Amino acid sequence: MRLLALTRYSSLAPSSRVRFYQYFPFLASCGVELQVAPLLGDDYVRSLYSGRRQSVLSVVMAYINRVARLMNSRSFDLLWVEKELFPWFPAWAESSLARQGVPYVADYDDAVFHRYDLHRSSLIRALLGKSIDAVMRHATTVVVGNDYLAERARRAGASRIEYLPSVVDVDQYSPGERMDKQFRIGWIGSPITAPFMGLIRDALEEVSKNVNARLVLVGAGDRDPLPGLEKEILPWSEDSEVANIQSFDVGIMPLPDGPFEQGKCGYKLIQYMACGLPVVASPVGVNTRIVEQGKTGFLASSNADWVQALVMLSRDAALRKELGKAGRKKVEQEYSLQVAAPRLLGILTKAASHKESDHEVS
Prior knowledge:
The chain is of the alpha/beta class. It folds into two domains: 2-167 and 337-361, Rossmann fold (3-Layer(aba) Sandwich), CATH 3.40.50; 183-334, Glycogen Phosphorylase B (Rossmann fold). It contains 17 helices and 13 strands. The strands form two sheets. It has a seven-stranded parallel sheet, sandwiched between helices. Strands 9-8-7-10-11-12 form a six-stranded parallel sheet, with helices on both faces. Strand 11, helix 14 and strand 12 (297-299) form a beta-alpha-beta unit. Helix 10 runs parallel beside helix 15 and helix 13 packs across helix 16 (317-334). The chain is globular, with a radius of gyration of 21 Å. It starts with a strand and ends with a strand.
């Protein structure tokens, strides 16, 4: 099979790395002839996470390069598209591929459609509100990371929908040995999601009064999401990511309950659990599927819930170990690259052969 992966970003971006790049070695080992063409490269990703704006010219050139790449799309058995071919444009390219009989798989790990249909501009809502629906409708297969995204694909008229969660390579993630006696509450993310930490500020302040705890934020960027609260802020890097998580005693994921957040795939929870950590998370979207209450961690709806869960975990090392072990097992069985990669190969192979079943969800 000749496969062209049309990712949104380079491998520096977590979404592209998790949903695409980490699968490439396995696909190549299975004889897939794969080429990758990111729309936006390393410089754009670095600018995105540093808060700097990329020049308009560089973005225009990126779009022109993608048009050129699509000119020989018929030489591939399948196109594998991250979300959409041209952000902030109608789905003209995807419609053209469908008319030409070029099969493509569209992959979604967040509610990108809400950037358009919930945009504050009525013009954007009118022009682009249904653009992702069109991408889904014309796709041979739509791959989604959670049920919320699957439901949107179903309503859009997608001919085939496949569920594939975001996963980790369990050979790279493993439980670490904690020597420090201070209880470390850890979060990993990006400058974009760091403001969510403000949702539990009061809870963290209360915990700090009762527990010898240290808050560690990885990847929060230059803007402090919790000014005045004692914490350690570490830069994110792919090389140090796992080691940083292994240094935590508990992994947390506060999240507001909004339409965008319903589309998230809970990747940081999976990372924590793969490292044998108990987790505490907001009961939003896929979090309720990943976290088994009292078995792999706790779902916390209120400040009181957050305080209770964190204080309990700080005082009970045996409980932390028990929950962490169960979480690790769940990741191995349901959220590992080792389980997901063969399934993805089957999805792509089937799409390339154009074997479709109307409105089927697997």
